[in-house]
Amino acid sequence: MKTVHLITNILFFCLVSSSCQKQEAASTAEKSTSLTPITSHTKMVKVDGGNYQPFYGTDSSLVKVEPFLIDETPVTNVEFLLFVKANPQWQRSQAKQLFADTAYLRDWQSDTLLPQNALPDAPVTYVSWFAAKAYATAVGKRLPTLDEWEFIAMADQTSINARQKKSYSDAIVNLYLIKNRQYNAIKQSPPNYWGIYNVFDLVWEWTDDFNSVLITNDSRSGDFGNKNLVCAGSATSATDVMNYAAFMRFSLRSNLKANYTISSLGFRCAKNISN
C-alpha cells in the first residue's frame, strides 16, 4: 500500500503542475560556449539493441533500438570536476541561469572543490540537462535517448527483459525509496545483463529527450495532439500499469526543465557505434 500511495502522490504532483514542459533547445547553449575536450576513462558497454515495448504509447507497436555504446557507470564527482576545471564556464559561479538553475552544484564547497565528505567516485548530482549535455560533448559522447535508457532498464542480472518477473518493479521501487543513495560509490552492486552498473540504485538519470513522452489530461481519448498536456491520465496510457517504478520515472521526467538541478539526478553518457 505504501507503494500505491507513493505513486498516487507523484501523479497528483504531476497533475497540479501548470503543464508538462517540453525540452528546451540546446542550440543556444552550444553556440554561446566553446568546450575544451577532455578524456573520459569510463568503460563503455556495447548494447546489441533490439525491439521493446515503450511504457507509454497509443498502440502496442514495438520500438526498434539500434545497437549503441553506454557508460557502464554514471558520471562521478571527480569526472565532472575535471570537466569544470577545463571548462570554467560550467563552474558553479559562472554557469548562466538559462542553462542551470540556482541549485546547480549547490553542495560543492567552491567552483573546484567537491562537497565536504563527498566520495570522488559517487555520482555527480545537482547537474542540469544542459550541463550534462556539455560534459558529454566534451568527452566525445552524447546523452542516451529515452528509448535507449529504458531498453537497458528492462534488464536484470540474468535477462534482457525482466518486466514480466513479479519481483522486477518492486525491487526497483524499493531502491528508489532508499534515502541518500546518491552519496554512495559506483559499482558497489552487481551489474545487469549488459554489464551496466547502478541503473537504479544511486541516481535518477537525464536522457537526451527526457520529456519527449507527454500525457494528455485524458489519454483514454487517444488524442495525443493536445498541447495542454498534464499527467492526470498517465495510468490509462501506460502499457504496463503494474510497473510502478516506470510511473515514478516518467512522472519525474514530465516535470523537469532542461535547466533544473536535483539532489538525486545525475547522468551517464552514450555513443553511436561506428560503422
Explained architecture:
There is one protein chain. The protein has helices at about 1-15, 25-30, 75-85, 130-140, 145-155, 165-175, 245-255, and strands at about 45, 50, 65, 70, 205, 265, 270. By secondary structure, it is α+β, with helices and mostly antiparallel strands. It has one domain: paralog of FGE (formylglycine-generating enzyme). The strands form three sheets. It has a three-stranded antiparallel sheet, with no helix packed on it. A two-stranded antiparallel sheet has the order 2-3. Helix 7 links the parallel strand 5 (about 205) and strand 6 (about 265). Helix 1 runs parallel beside helix 7 and helix 6 (about 165-175) packs across helix 7. The radius of gyration is 18 Å and the shape is globular. About 35% of the residues are buried. Residues about 1-25 and about 215-240 have low confidence and may be disordered.
Helix-strand pattern: HHEEEEHHHHEHEE
- CATH level 3 topology: paralog of FGE (formylglycine-generating enzyme)
Overall pLDDT confidence: 79
CATH architecture: Alpha-Beta Complex
In a few lines, what is going on in this structure?
The protein has about 280 residues and is α+β, with helices and mostly antiparallel strands. It contains seven helices and seven strands.
Describe this protein with a few key phrases.
275 residues, globular, 3-stranded antiparallel β-sheet, alpha+beta, two-stranded antiparallel ribbon, 7 helices, paralog of FGE (formylglycine-generating enzyme), disordered N terminus, 26% helix
